Amino acid sequence: MKKALLEQEKRELKQTEQKMPKQIPQVSMSNRDVKKQEKEQLRLQRLEIRKARIEERQRKKEEKRAQKIKQKLTKQKITTPESLELNDDIKKILLMTDSLLGELPEDVINKFMQSQEFELYQKVLNKYNVK
Q1: SS3 sequence, 38-107?
Q2: By three-state DSSP, how is residue 1 classified?
Q3: d(Cα 91, Cα 50) in Å, to the nearest integer?
């Protein structure tokens, strides 16, 4: 009986020993899996950081563009009253010039009308709505 018990214990011991090596690789595999998961998480975190940096750069570029446009519009608004005043002065000068041209002799007026300067003169009059 004692021999039978000893033999049975030996068999059980062998069976557990045979099972043990199989369990160790499983544990190491799960450790590998854990390490792979950790590496993947780190990679994803780095990727998110890169994306955030890129988005931040793009946002800053857009802000700079918007600021430049705003500055240009502000400059235009500042010069607008001055340019209106200048336009009025130019219109007055053009009206005086047109009036003086009308007082010139007919042959001088005809000669002027056939010159290249007359085209420029008409262009400027049309631009400032003078006539």
Answers
A1: HHHHHHHHHHHHHHHHHHHHHHHHHHHHHHHHHHHHHHHHHHHHHHHHHHHHHHHHHHHHHHHHHCCCHH
A2: coil
A3: 59
- Domains in the chain, number: 1
Torsion angle defined by CA atoms of residues 43, 44, 47 and 49, in that order, rounded to the nearest 10 degrees: -110
123 in a structural domain: yes
Quote the pTM value.
0.37
User: Is there a contact between 118 and 112 (Cβ–Cβ < 8 Å)?
Assistant: yes
Q: Which two tokens stand for residue 92?
A: 């007055």
- Per-residue pLDDT reduced to its tens digit, 98-121: 888 889 899 988 988 898 988 988
> Which residues constitute the domain of residue 47?
13-127
- The SS3 call for residue 129 is coil
Asked if residue 131 lies in contact with residue 125, where contact means CB atoms within 8 angstroms, the answer is: yes
Does 1 map to a domain? no
